[in-house]
Amino acid sequence: MKPAPFKYVAASSLDHALTLKAEHGDEARFLAGGQSLIPAMNFRLARPAVVIDINGLDELAGIAHGPTIRVGALTRYCALERDSEFLDSCPLFADALPHIAHPQIRNRGTIGGNLSHADPASELPALAVAMEAQMRLKSAGGERRLAASEFFEGSLTTGLAADEMLVEVEFPALPPRSGACFMEVSRRRGDFAIAGLATIVTLDAEGRCTKVRLALCGVGETPVDASEAAAPLVGHACADRPIEAAAAAIRAAIEPAGNVHASADYQRHLAGVLAQRAIRTAYQRAANAA
Amino acid sequence: MTTRFFGAPVKRNEDRKLLTGQALFIDDVELPGMLHAAFLRSQAAHARIKRIDVSRARQRPGVVAVYTADDYGAYWQPGPLLVPPPPIPGSVFNQRTQVPLAKDKVRHVGEPLAVVVAESRYIAEDALDDIEVDLEPLPAVIDLEAALRPGSVLVHDDLGSNVSAHVHQSKGDYRAAAAKAHLVIKRRFAYEHGIASTIETRGVVAHWEARSQHMTIWDTTQAPVFVRNGLAALLGLGERQVRVIAPFVGGGFGPKIMMFYPEEVALPWISMRLNRPVKWIEDRLEHFFATTHERGQIHDAEIAVARDGRILGVKDVFLHDGGAYDPYGLTVPINSQCTLLGPYVVPSYDSAFTAVFTNLPIVTPYRGAGRQHGVFVMERLLDLAAHELNIDPAEIRRRNLIPADAFPYKNGIIYQDFSQLEYDSGNYEPVLDQALQAIGYSEFKREQKKLRAQGRHVGIGVACYVEGTGIGPYEGARVQVQANGKVSVATGIGTQGQGHFTSLAQIVADQLGVDVTDVDIVTGDTDQFYWGAGTFASRGAVVAGNAVNEASRAVRQKALKLASDAFECAEEDLVLADGRISIVGIPEKFLGLGELAKRANPMRGAVKPGTEPGLESTQYFGPPSGATANGVHAMIVEVDPDTFDLKILKYVVVHDCGTVINPLILEGQIHGGVAQGIGNAFYEKLVFDDQGQLLNASLADYLLPTALEVPRMELGHTVTPSPLNPMGIKGAGEAGAIPVGPLFAQAIEDALQLKEKNVELLEVPLSPSRIFDLIKASEP
Amino acid sequence: MQPDRHEISVSVNGTAYRRNVESRMLLSDFLRHELLLAGTHVGCEQGVCGACTILLDGAPIRSCLMLAVQANGHELSTIEGLASDSGELSPVQKAMHEHHGLQCGYCTPGILMTMTAFLKQNPSPSEEEVREALSGNLCRCTGYQHIVDAMMAAAQAMRASAP
Known about the structure:
The complex is a heterotrimer of chains A (290), B (780) and C (163).
Chain A: E1 7-10, H1 14-24, E2 28-31, H2 37-42, E3 50-53, E4 63-64, E5 68-72, H3 77-82, H4 84-89, H5 91-96, H6 103-106, H7 111-117, H8 123-130, E6 134-139, E7 142-147, H9 148-151, E8 152-154, E9 157-158, E10 165-172, E11 178-185, E12 195-203, E13 209-217, E14 224-225, H10 240-253, H11 264-289
Parallel strand pairs in A: 1-3, 2-3
Antiparallel strand pairs in A: 4-5, 5-10, 6-7, 6-10, 8-9, 11-12, 12-13, 13-14
Chain B: H1 15-19, E1 35-41, E2 47-53, H2 55-59, E3 63-68, H3 69-72, E4 92-93, E5 105-106, E6 112-118, H4 121-128, E7 132-137, H5 144-148, E8 163-171, H6 174-179, E9 183-191, E10 203-209, E11 214-219, H7 224-235, E12 242-245, H8 262-274, E13 278-281, H9 284-290, E14 297-305, E15 311-323, H10 331-339, E16 348-357, H11 371-389, H12 393-400, E17 409-414, E18 420-423, H13 428-439, H14 441-453, E19 458-469, E20 475-481, E21 487-491, H15 500-512, E22 519-523, H16 540-567, E23 574-577, E24 580-583, E25 586-592, H17 593-599, E26 616-621, E27 627-639, E28 646-656, H18 663-683, E29 714-717, H19 740-751, E30 763-764, H20 768-778
Helix pairs in contact in B: 7-8, 10-11, 11-12, 11-19, 15-16, 18-19
Chain C: E1 5-12, E2 15-22, H1 27-34, E3 53-56, E4 59-62, E5 75-77, H2 91-98, H3 108-121, H4 127-134, H5 145-161
Parallel strand pairs in C: 1-5
Antiparallel strand pairs in C: 1-2, 3-4, 3-5
Helix pairs in contact in C: 2-5, 4-5
């Protein structure tokens, strides 16, 4: 299990990296944390002709706080974990980060690498969708923004063009009286989710839901935005019937395929279980936040 | 002799090297001019080979050679049958052993088709892509029952069927027993055991030195002596021309015994042809196909019981998935057949199995080696009977235990070591008592009602087992006092973490009155010790340990004799302690062992005729038959009724492996065994599709338990010495792994009250998804 | 295609090395076969087993998931650097010996590196935290219990000897 040959270039600037990418297109891959790319190269499932190492590009790393929280693509999981202000403003991350592999992986892996890899069983794509993140994509020719819900096109496929890099992710701050919760079931801690669910519930002053965002991982070809299925919650305080109705709608809305660890039926069942548990917790957290 | 070390929790001699990164493992062998091999492996489970074209690969810069089966010429021959079938009347055994490189046909995914030798492993892997292979796919034989139906596709065309073996053993009259039974319960059980998945994969380094006409082979094998003998014969060399070294080996658990893996055959031959050292290190992906597995059995079993729960008889007909070849004979299914009887009195037993060839990787013993499968069937049958008869599961076991006065206990059937299955010694009931006490069995039953009322789903399991250990034929050891007073010991077994450098040293240290750290053990180097069988079947400590003991005693006697001559006193007046021999009461008058060793090898002067030089002795030990250890595991779990995931709240092991050499090492063996048992019961499953493709060939998807899945374990011991060896020891290597499957099934059923839902857990491995699916299927 | 090679400088356990490496060489292979620091072991080459864990600028990482060329200019620590120059074992090594925390010893280098970094960060861990920290390192021999015991003891010893 050794990588096929390639040409390695340590990019000296973002422009340098983008110029190289424009030149080599799909033949080139950006190397960030490498925690998905290098295993794929070791298995020879990925055989880029050119590897553009962007680890030296400090301008791509870091978290800018504000009404919109902007996270540079090269920000590593361990940096997210250690930034308490970030975890306060993006509480789904506080729930989800411990589920992402193990400390050794979190010391290298980056948010941009994870989202660009677009593994549907991974946690962060679901978080990005639930949080209505905006992805900032850059190429030598310009820059554009793409909503997370449009960014993920399929399993391991995104809206990134061959010459583009995901450079930053923008997370809108949660509205007041919001509570968030991410939960997942995996066989072992750190494994990809058999089913995972991120939700944000926003309440009015009376504790009734005014808005719900909900996305799942591990149960489809992309992170699944099930916010519409969760809409029965709107107008309701935390109560069994609306939550059960939402969970039933979510179960119906997804099309899990099953995998070596779980039957499709079990995944669907779990989605319902997680929906009930996570929505309740989110309600509670929203109430506490008020 | 004092026993300062025997029985004490002595810390290990080998640790320092391992803790500082100085231990030599196979991939650490670096030789000037070394080449690297990579194997092209079949992507198809079953196919006819139409063409292999390696010409492009040969042209790649950095590639030195590429070989296919045709290049091997007369060297190409199927591997040996390692264990011939035991002499059971009426048995059928069809020998079809693995081949060094596939010719004509491939029979499982991962079977090697060609080998590339290059200046680096990277280049060798590049060249694999250059090889053009034309395979004509054939339907794969995967399903055991379908494989036996007339007209099935054949794994071995010349055989006429897919039967690898058929064996029937019986005692008593089961039919009569069933006729008079109060209750007969019949079920179908499926048990799968996965892959040992040592953290170090396999590897071979071969170094032919033309000048000295000598071959050195470093090999991650558990049986170096047999590898030397076999390869010398294959290569047309004398055994003295071949040295096999099993260096530090990163875990064995069985599959590192299987001889000869295609890579073991290829590398020495390549080194001879190219006259350069060559290395092959299995990568993790290869490991999933190229190293042997254990896998499935399907049992149609029934138990006949009296009203009071006493067993009247057991009948079992089972199929065993042997994979594409059967080099290991009947070992695994015979173990299943024999170990099913467990610690119980079973007056009549009728058991027949058919081992089946499939287009899947080869099955050979893996820690437990089929014992699990048998134990699962028996323990589940007892649980079902207990439920029907409304007897407590622990109580039905107690009622059937072999009584203490019945040993040695003859089971009336033949075991894997060709001898009658006879339990040498045991005292089973106190083991059960101690386990129930430790788990808090009766308190739990009360507590459980309260917890259930709180909506918590907790359950308990208790499972009993025996483990045949320490089988023959023999092992040997040479113990030698060196001039510096340190003791050097060589034995023919291999070692893969069992602590032999320490446990064997403890035996020597006591006999020779030296410190454990002054005893240097060499294992797994055929130039250091010529004879031996290997490390398997929980036999290292039992068989090699006793050989070491015999040799140490002989050296002790030699030393005392020499000293008595020197001091002109009787041997009875001498004490041997602290590395020296002195006269009783006159400690200042002494001779060090080193000095005695020097005197035993004089430069000048006459010695008496018949005198052997040196303070040295080589002795062998062969037990008449295997020693039988036994134990009970008990576990309390809590199951999440919605996700069906579980948490182990308490885990208890009480067992009896005779006299204990080193309780610290023994604990480690049990802990590790339980961890593998937990993996087997709830996490590890090789998932094949109907074309024989392994769908989870990665450690990300083949789930070895981590520190979060393995609970703290509480251990207890009882000691019933074995009469079969002077030290009274029994093996312990597999005990931890054997009964965990039925324990999970029983505890989960109890936690979720599945019997009330008419759900029975009759298979292993289980998983949250599988439990959900079974419950769902039972709902109207 | 000519191999793509690069000059790199790394510091390993305080010793500086300059080497010319092919870009595709994994850091684990570089340490083991180029620098002959073979104490770092390789178990899966996909970042799961943890045997190859080393410290990169003090933080544990999988050396099989990094290219050697990426280590240019960085400081690495491996198992060979844990004991003192005089050969005295570190508290974590010592505790592993005393509690029989290793059997075959193949996964041990990764565990030592992971836990050395962990105990520095969290000097008073609970058993659960130790188990969590260990969960990225697979061990097939020990069932983890003695490793956990060793880490609890090492933490205590390190606290006791801290200034």
